Structure formats: C-alpha cells, structure tokens
Amino acid sequence: MSDTLWWQHGTIYQIYPRSFQDSNGDGIGDLEGIRQRLPYLIWLGVDAVWISPFYPSPMADFGYDVADYCDVDPIFGTLEDFDRLSADIHKAGMKLILDFVPNHTSDRHPWFQESRISRDSPKRDWYIWRDPAPDGGPPNNWISNFGGSAWQFDEATGQYYYHAFLKEQPDLNWRNPEVRWAMHDALRFWLDRGVDGFRVDVIWHLIKDADLRDNPINPAYEPHQRELNRLLEVHSCDQPEVHEVIAEMRAVLEEYDERVLIGEIYLPIERLMAYYGDDLKGAHLPFNFQLLQSAWDARHIDNLIREYETALPEGGWPNWVLGNHDQARIADRLGPAQARVAALLLLTLRGTPTLYYGDEIGMVQVPIPPERVQDPWEKNEPGLGFNRDPARTPMQWDESAHVGFSTVEPWLPVDHRESNRNVAAQKQDRSSLLCLYKRLLELRRERKALSIGRYVPVTAEGDILAFRREHDEERFLIVLNLGSTTHRLMLDEGVRGHVVLSCLGREAGDELSGTIEIPANEGLVVELAD
Ligand code: NOJ
Fold first, then answer.
1. Cβ atoms of 527 and 475 closer than 8 Å
2. What is the distance in A from the centroid of ligand 1 to the CA of 52?
3. Which helix (H) or strand (E) holds 478?
4. Distance from the CA of 216 to the CA of which of 35, 189, 283, 491 falls in 20 to 30 A?
C-alpha cells in the first residue's frame, strides 16, 4: 500500500505491559513476555504495537508517573530486553509505538527532586509552583483528575505545586523552553533506538492558562460524576499555545522518517480537530474516542461518524478507538453479540483502528475484591465506578490457573467465568470473536477499499447503521444491526452484491439485491457488483 503510510492503513494494538505476559514469574507482565507473545500478534494480523509506559517509576499511577524517561523499570526488564523486543517486532514487519508522558513526571524524578529543594533551584521553574492564596489555601480552584485539589502544599519552601493527576505526578511547566528541550531529547533517545512513534499522554493538558485563573463552576454537575466535573476545564487545559508545543514535538519526529505522533485527547469533535495543527503540523492522529463516549445507538453513531468525517481538516487522517486502559471493556458495555458488531464497525470504518489487548477475545470487566484494588483513582474517589482495574486484568491466554499469563498469582485477578474466553479456546473455534477479528484484519489488509477507501454515508433507519467504502473499482457496503430485532434495508435500484463477511455466520458469497433482511446483532460486509 505504497500510496499511504503504515500508520494510515495499519491497525494499532495496545498492550498494557503489566498484564500481557509475565516471563519471570513475579505476577507482573514484562517486555520479554511481550516478545514471547509476538507470534500471536503476527497470527492475529495487527501492524503496530503500542506499549503503555514501562519506564522507571514508583508506580503510583502504574507507570504514568515517570522517574526516568530514558530507561526501563526493572519490573519490566532492561534496555537490552527492549532492544530485543524492538528488533523482533521490526523483523516481523510490525511497528513499535511508545507511550510518552510529558505533562507530568513522578515526584521521584530527579528534576522534581531538584525543583523542590528551594525557590531558587535552577529547576524551580520546570514545574508549576505558586504562593498560597491570601487565606493560605491553594492558588486557584482547579481540581485533580483523580479528585481533590490539584495543588499540593510543600512545607519546605512554603509554596504549592500543581498536579493535574496524583500529587505524586507534578505537572511540568511547558512554558519553559528548557523543559521542552529536555523532553525533545527524551523523544530522540527512543527515536534513535528505532521507535516508530509515540502516543502522547494527555497532550491537551500541556499548557495551562498563563494567569492560572479559576475555572468556572459547571452548572450541569451531578453528584454521581467525578469531582473534576464540578468545574468546567476552561483554563486548565486545551489552551491555544498548546498547538505550538505539539508542532515542536512533531518537528522532532520529522527529523526521522515515517514516525507517528498520536495525541491522547478527550475533547468534543470541533475542538479535537485543532490538534491536527495548522497545515497538519500537529498530531498525525488526535485520538478519536467518540465511540467510547457515545450511546450504542445506530442513529447517534451514524451522526457522529458523519460529523467526524465532515469536521476533519483537508488531508487529516481519521482514527477510531473502542477501548483502552482507562475505559470499561467494550464487550462488557455492549454484551457478546454487539461486541462482534463493534469489531466489524471498528475494522471497517475509514481511519486507523486501535485495538485494546483482550478486546479481541471479548474480555469483560473483571470484579476486583476491595482488598485487591490497585487503581489510585479508585482509592481517591472510591465506590463511584471509576476503578480502572477491571479493564486492566491479565490477558487470558488459556484456561489454566493463571490463564497462561503467569506461573504465580498475578497482580490483578484473572477471569475464569467463561471457559472459552481465552485465546487457546477461540483459536480452535472458527465462530469465535477472535476468529472474527482475525478475518476482519485479514480482509482489511487484502482490500484497499476497507483500509484506505472513501467513506460514503448510506441512509438507513432504526437500529441499522450503513455506509460504503470505495477505492478504485472496489466497493463495499457495510450494514450493521445495533439492535435486538430484525430490520430491513432496501438497496438502491440495480444495486447488487454478495456477502464477504457476516457477524452471525451467514455464508460468504450469498447474493444480495432489493430489500435485505438484517437479523438482530448482524453485521455484514457486502462487496458490491458494478
Ligand atoms: C492518561 C492515561 O491514559 C491514564 O492511565 C493516566 O492515569 C493519566 N493519563 C495520567 O497520566
């Protein structure tokens, strides 16, 4: 597919390294474990692997609190393990994407250690320090993403520092050019080692209002929501100057060839689009989380696909996400039948798909007994349903005691509730979700219309979502039933086609024309005849 780049026609697979494969029997996954499981990823047919953070870290936020940007935490292995993994990924023709966490460091990072020593420290301005408010309280009303004030008082120097997440995750001051340069060097460290790109953590947070003004009260706040939502995040993120910072990061990647910059951004579509940058000099792929955040309703999803496609800047490449380590598992949200429909949607939409490990076997939220809770967010705001642990449990490889993930009790519980919710069982069963994913990935590789073709909306009603994908002579109709009753779709006069793939196992090759019946939970890829 020489007319597009790898990150445009390829599929990205996200690995949460603590939970993919443990190779040294400590109950926690590691880089060598990922390497040992590469044959699986090759078999599945994904094109790039994104690994969540594995840098040295006190693990207050499981690696999103980085204490050294240029090394590997001993829990996950060594730089040599990394090099071996990277070499094998590349040997298999796949790409490697790292997680870059620039908004904050760990409070154990030497930069912060130096910054906190005194108000005159050369690194003082690398972080966001402010005097207390006149009443001695925090400098403004900003709230941490994990609940509570976003400011932590430091006795030694009598000032507060800002942390958008945990107090163990102080925010860097990206208005300071020295911070930018240091972080660019961290990027180059991995780029020089052959990394193909980065997923950049909370990229829309990097710049805050220069005057740190109070955020306005959110009039729509409801008590079941996270504390963060008490305020509207008007001044604490998504500031205009952030785009310059992103463009500079992108320029670092441009020193190398064909690297990708992906931004983690939770914003509505119109604000998200700004992250492609002026002249597309921002993120190549500002993550599109629309499917994660919307009701599973055909009309609603149809609208958001159209809206997203229309809003894309000229030349901006789309992308779609169904799951990640911060969100409830898709198969839990939708149930097993619609999880198949969702797989078909993810892999037939126009744009780069990102697949979260385990979603391909329909892993669901795993219950976590209170004494085993790990997620710091759950510990800060307990009982409100924010725990991210249930979606981060060990990959289910087989039915053995520790599901083939480890030889000992893993760091989070494993799920034994369904005997076929594992790779070994589903590999044997051609009707499994795993085999559906594999077939879809294969089809996407074989048929350009499905990976890089145009998206053409199709009018449908009720629970039916339909669209076409077209490239040169190839034309496909995608029809999905997001509901629980049979619906009909009338093909236009003279339009004929045959089934290429079906969620419910309808024969490939079946000819279709006129009015077609779409049973509940069906999803069809139909190749249209001319
Ligand atoms: C977003 C990451 O995906 C999440 O896991 C983490 O807790 C926060 N950023 C803070 O880094």
1. yes
2. 10
3. strand 474-481
4. 283
User: How many other CB atoms are there within 10 angstroms of residue 74's CB atom?
Assistant: 9
Supply the residue whose CA is at minimum distance from atom 4 of ligand 1. Answer: 326
Which atom of ligand 1 lies closest to the CA of 61? 7
The burial class, CB within 10 Å (0-12 / 13-18 / 19+), for 262 is buried
Pocket of ligand 1 (CB under 6 A): 61, 64, 101, 165, 201-202, 264, 325-326
- Give residue 129's identity as a one-letter amino acid code: W
Select from 332, 322, 329, 337 the least CA-distant residue to 485. Answer: 337
Band the pLDDT of 2: cuts 50, 70, 90: low
Band the pLDDT of 260: cuts 50, 70, 90.
Answer: very high
What distance in Å separates the CA atoms of residue 51 and residue 39, rounded to the nearest whole number? Answer: 16
Give the pairing type, strands 352-356 and 12-15: parallel
pLDDT at 530: 73
* Atom nearest to 65 CA in ligand 1: 11
Look at residue 354 and tell me whether its pLDDT is greater than 70.
yes
Compute the half-sphere exposure of residue 214: CA atoms within 13 Å on the CB side of its CA: 8
- Pocket test residue of 15, 61, 107 for ligand 1, highest count of atoms within 8 A of CB: 61
Place of tokens 């996270």: 226
User: Which two three-digit tokens encode residue 276?
Assistant: 């492609």
Distance 436 CA to ligand 1 centre (A): 30
Task: Give the mean pLDDT of the chain.
Answer: 97
Q: What are phi and psi of 14, to 5 degrees?
A: -90, 130
- At 130 the pLDDT is 98
**Start-to-end CA span in the chain (Å):** 24
Residue 212 gets the label, from left (phi > 0), alpha (psi -120 to 50) or beta, of left
DSSP structure class, residue 526: E
Closest residue CA from atom 6 of ligand 1: 64
pLDDT tens track for 429-459: 999 999 999 999 999 999 999 999 999 999 9
Please give the number of the atom of ligand 1 that sits closest to the Cα of 376: 7
Token pair of 245 as six digits: 């910072």
Report whether 285 contacts 262 (CB < 8 A): yes
Instruction: Report the 10 Å Cβ neighbour count for 188.
Output: 15
Q: What is the DSSP letter of 125?
A: G
pLDDT band at 1 (very low <50, low <70, confident <90, very high): low
Span from the CA of 349 to the centroid of ligand 1 (angstroms): 26
- The whole-number pLDDT of residue 477 equals 97
Task: Indicate yes or no: pTM above 0.90.
Answer: yes
Whose Cα sits closest to atom 11 in ligand 1?
Answer: 64
